[in-house]
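User: My instructor asked us to take a sequence, write out its structure as tokens, and then describe one feature of it. I'm not sure where to start. Here is the sequence I was given:
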Amino acid sequence: MNTVTLLPGERLTVSNLGREGAVPAKITQAAANIIATVRAKGDAALHRYAAEFDGVDLTDFRVPQERIDAALEQVDASLIAALEKAAAQIRDFHQRQVRQSWFTTRADGTLLGVQVTPVRAAGIYVPGGRAQYPSTVLMNAIPAKVAGVERVVMATPPQRDGGISPATLAAAKVAGVDEIYLVGGAQAVAALAYGTESIPRVEKITGPGNAYVAAAKRLVSGDVGIDMIAGPSEVCVLANASAEAAVVAADLMAQAEHDPLAACYLVTESPELARGVEAALEVLLAQSPRAEITRTSLTDQGTIVIAPDLATAIDAVNTIAPEHLELHCADALGLVGSIRNAGAIFVGAWSSEPLGDYVAGPNHTLPTGGTAQFSSPLSVDDFVTSSSVICYTPQGLLADAPATQTMAQAEGLWAHALSAGLRRRLIDEGAPAVATKVLAEADLTAIAWPADDAATVASGVGRPTAQGEVR
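Assistant: Let's start with the prediction itself. The structure tokens for your sequence are:
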């Protein structure tokens, strides 16, 4: 692991981290070509890419419903128990995120509010390259179902035999996935975003994937909703001398074994702990079945930051803005308020990050690559839309029209002001006053921009006439 030693008064900077970004330009171009081909040729393109990238010849992309229904018969009972426990705790956590539509009325009778509506169809992408990820199925499908999404569609790459991992299929059954398609990579994102002959389009796409998936999600964003552009997984451990070196080492490896590009950070005030962690890594790596991937990640992407004091260490953590943050410190809970940027915060020595990956309940689909500075974990909110609801009464119109017209005049938007001005005229003088023939002879600019004084703009023009109230 690379070591950065900060001197007193020195701060960690983003340039110290050497991040490259989630999507290289050449991959973006390749993904763009794939998307264009899928849009033009539909299922034919998917068949071509399945043969080219996955080495399979599929007659049908969709997994039959009877296979989904029988999924739990194909896996060990202990895995079913784990999936069901995880699903229950994920569901319980996300149910607390559900927002209700709300409405309020002002004294003049104007009704304002928000209507919350689930999207009709959501596509979840589940990777299937280096490993199988049933946990990703749960973390993406359950919030969608809690939100009320009618159609939850899963896309995952086919295995070499043209099938699907039994564990992934079982997770889909437990999570309530409605449709499963064996399509991977950028082509899966394109199919979900635009539809093909056999895959109806969705309105939102979530879930992690490789750089091609990330590039494709960025490219289709705007035509369809996405959750985030996810890069390689990462963890940051903030630890002091009270931490157990071997435990910290294992937690760093838990991220490093995902991917050679996974990033691992250790931030500490203790050079002795840093040396202890490096020694422990060698011992643990000797027995790791994923040693090659793990060592490559730690060597190429790992960074140890040695800070002169706790304040500098916390500042370094906020600069890293990690996907996962572990606080291995004596007063870990007391430090939470100092953390500004992190996707998920694991507090104290007993809060192993893999617990969050699988069963704790909060979502493990998290912002990466420093985007925790402005992004949040996947949640129920990702699967709903909010519509503002605005319903004026005549009294409310008269109260707010002068301010509306004054602001429209300042922006030079004549018809904006006229829209409010004609309603004032309708309330004051009745329907004949806004008849087209009458308006043809009227000074419409005077109606649009009546030059109301400041008191009128602030307070409105008073209650409507009896005639207005009747209407």
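For the description part of your assignment, you could build on this observation: The radius of gyration is 28 Å. Try explaining in your own words what that tells you about the chain.
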